Each structure stands twice: as C-alpha cells, then as structure tokens.
Amino acid sequence: MYDLIIVGGGPAGLTAALYASRSGLKTIVFEKEVLGGKITTAHLVENYPAFVNGINGFELGELMANQAQKYGAEISFEEVKALKLDGKIKTVYLSDKELQAKAVILAMGSKNRKLGLPEEDQLIGRGISYCATCDGNFFKGQDVAVVGGANSAVSEALYLSKIAKTVRLIYRREKFRAEKIDIQRLQNTPNILTHTNSEIIKLNYDQVLKSVIIQNNKTQATEELFVNGLFVAIGHVPNTDLVEGQVALDAQKYIITDQNMTTNLEGVFAAGDIRSGAFRQVITACGDGARAAESVIDYLKKV
Ligand code: NAP
Hints:
Layout: E1 2-7, H1 11-22, E2 27-30, H2 57-70, E3 74-76, E4 82-84, E5 90-93, E6 98-106, E7 110-112, E8 128-129, H3 132-135, E9 143-147, H4 151-161, E10 166-170, H5 180-187, E11 192-195, E12 198-205, E13 209-216, E14 222-226, E15 229-232, E16 236-238, E17 268-270, H6 282-302
Parallel strand pairs: 1-2, 1-6, 2-3, 6-17, 8-15, 9-10, 9-15, 10-11
Antiparallel strand pairs: 4-5, 5-6, 7-16, 12-13, 13-14
Helix pairs in contact: 1-2, 1-6, 4-5
This protein binds NADP nicotinamide-adenine-dinucleotide phosphate (NAP).
NADP nicotinamide-adenine-dinucleotide phosphate binds next to helix 4.
C-alpha cells in the first residue's frame, strides 16, 4: 500500500513526488515513456528560473527525477493500464499486477494534436514528425516545414533553422503568437520563410513526403512547397482517456480542479498540463505538482 501514486513523470508529477517524499509519504511515480515529459523534446528551456543560459529539456527532466528519488520517491517505467479512483483506497492496474494507494495525483500531461489530414498517420517517420529535437537531424541540409504559430512552432522552426537548409513556417493566421523574443529571432533568421494565413490542404508523397500544398485562406491561392520533412506543432490534447467517466473533465477533456488541485473525487488530485485552465509552462506545472502534494498531505491527515 502506497500513500501516494503519481501517474506521469513530467515536471508536475516529479515535483509532486519531491514534495511528497520529503514529507515522508510512501510515493511511487509511473511513467510510460520518458522522465521529464514534454520538456524532454525542448532543445533548450530558456524560461525556467535559475538556468541563466537555459537548460536542455531532457537534462532538466533527469535532474527533477534524481531530486525526487534522492528523498525516497520510487519511479517505475510501467504503463498504467487502468485506474479505479472511487472509494477510500485507489487501485492502479499494471500489465501484470495491481497496486493500491490512499491518494492519487494525475499528471499524465498531453499528447500532440494531429492535423487530421488523411495521409498524416502513414507518413509519421517518413517525413512527418511532432518533435524537432528528436527528428531534426534526419533532415540535415534539407528543406523542411513547420506548421503552427505559437510558442512550440516558432521555437521548433528556430531550432530547425540551424540544421535544415530552409524552414517554411506555415501558420493559419496573420500574426504569430509566440513570445516576442522568439518572434524577433524568427525575423532575424534568413533561412526561415513564413507563410501566414496559410493552411496545409494536401500532403504529396510516394514512399516518403515530397511536398505539401498550402492554401492562403484570404485569397484561396494555392502553392506547392517541396519539403522533405513536416514538423507539426499545433498544440496538444490531454491524456485523460484513462480517467474519462471517473473524473470530471471540461469540454476539451482537461481535468477540472480547484486551486488546490483537488478533483471531483476524494483523494484524487491533478497537476500540470492535464489540468483545465493550466498555463502550461514548466514552472507552473512544477507549482501545480507542489500544491497537489501539499493537498495530499493535508488530505491524508484527515482520513
Ligand atoms: P498552443 O499554444 O496551443 O498553440 C497551438 C498552435 O497551433 C496555435 O498557433 C494554433 O493556431 C495552431 N493550431 C491549432 N490547431 C491547428 C490546426 N488544426 N491546424 C493548424 N494550426 C493549428 O500550443 P504550443 O505552441 O504547443 O504550446 C503549448 C503550451 O506550451 C503553451 O502553453 C505554450 O506557451 C507552452 N510552450 C511554451 C514555450 C516557451 O515558453 N518558450 C515553448 C513551447 C511551448 P491559432 O493561433 O490560430 O489558435
């Protein structure tokens, strides 16, 4: 029996594990992919305080995990298959066993949103990627495109501009809405070519991606861009499949919490990107994780 099971080993889950283990709670974190979650795909995290020159996202995730483990948190790379969250004792089902805990923090984050074009899935790994730091090097000296217009798309385009010959940044609106510092960098990077008011309407391929057809949504004019790689950075959808039907979700399927990270279920808390209304930054995910752990500590004193 654990005091606390945390599902998800991103910044929210790992910070919750740090706070909970330092308070003496028997805590385990389950992570099915990589510790650090989404930040592991960031080449450089420049807005996490204290790292004046930025820090690689993968390294930041590793440091957070090491710190939680130092105080006794267990970390397991098993995938949580199902959860039973009602009642005083919570059950987590793994592929070959089940574990129980008095409280659960849901910190499963979110996954990449897809464009929804018919050929998209079959071209993943054959030109289409959702992670520039993971796959950018496959396109050294080639022509690539990034689709999206917020922080992720602009930072992926900047990262790829150092590897690829040209980067086409395709955005459906007039003005990018990334941080100003990155928009300025964009304007000062000659091998990034921007296509605003533009949407991808077709992917052309044989074995691999050959080109994309974009359409200007003001003029309806179309253009074929010959690119070997297309990086999709159009936001995320929450990983709430495991808890749908048990925990209250908003219309976009993010978990509804109060400011103490409490969900509608007793003993069940949520933190980080999975939470409705979250700011979705590393620093706020960490803040959520700390708050969720404190709420667990208070909750366990009462039950
Ligand atoms: P996001 O802020 O949700 O933006 C998604 C972008 O994709 C928007 O530009 C959106 O267009 C576009 N989009 C959505 N659906 C689309 C579709 N079907 N077709 C074409 N375009 C589509 O996502 P994000 O940039 O990944 O950022 C996620 C979170 O991480 C944010 O909170 C962000 O601030 C944070 N983040 C921060 C940093 C940083 O601080 N440096 C870096 C990366 C990410 P519209 O603009 O028209 O809605």
